[in-house]
Amino acid sequence: MTDTFTNRDYWKGIVLYGFNVATYKIALAKTLLELAETGISHVRWNALSEEFLKQYKDRLDKEAMPQLTNPNRLTVMERIVMKVNNGSITMTEAVDKVGREAFDDVIPRFHSIGQDKDIVKGKFYEFSEGKQIIIKDSVFDILQDRPKELFDEIDARWGLLEAAFLINRDHFDLANDIRDIYLQKGHERKDITKNIPFLNGYQDNICFYCSEPMDADDIHVDHVLPRQVVNHDEAWNLVLSHSFCNLQKSDNLIGPAYIEKLIARNENIMGSNHPWKKNIKDKLGDTKATRRQNLENHYANVRKVLGSNYWRGSERWSAKLDPFFRSLVTRLNN
Question: Whole-model pTM?
Fold first, then answer.
């Protein structure tokens, strides 16, 4: 992989692409950003533990969703928060326990992307176990541009992991509409996150159709294959776009180059662990080749209805120049 990737590319790779069996990596990512926002680079172990505990306590106090894929176990952090809440330990004792018991795996392994432990080794921090963590300039660098987007991405990723673990434990099914992702079991419905911050990460924060950056107040969720023909809101067919691009496309058929981009975007999602992975797998197939074939079949069926009068997208857009295809996440998963 010879491309030069940015610090933000590597950060997205860590947060969005990993074989997460618990939520620790996501919680540590948020902890690092929160600490970096204070402007401090040399963080005492006790201060790191306190912020990490705060992230979990705030989240679990709001709604106690599972933090581990194994339905028969609780994470160390869940047990510590429970002890604080029932009064069996003080906050000071809890912070000490976090520092001694919670970091054994996540601190050394945070920089892994997928199963690769060396691709980004040591880029965002160095640490002396039990003493301090040194946050590198690369973290401060990514906070300079669109910090809210980073936090929204982490929160969405955390919520999707919790949902994946809940599905495994309690027979919930994933459902989706245009704006919300939720879980349902019988008549019970549990909102877990919004589509926009989730999809934004896997699209590299650009409009699907013109590849230009999107402002937070000008993002539409769009059906690539028109809903009037496919008649569903399945995850594999939903993308983000500018309102202008969405309105220009309307219910027209898109050209084949956009189908290639949709296939690649779906494989980005398949490279991680969250509910939509199972949803896409169930709807399109177990293998990359099968998913491609089934999506192309859907495209062929829509073309029979709409004809071959394509909407070719923005005049400025070119697949060869689209930064989506050069991003680290896309290169890893396609």
Answer: 0.84
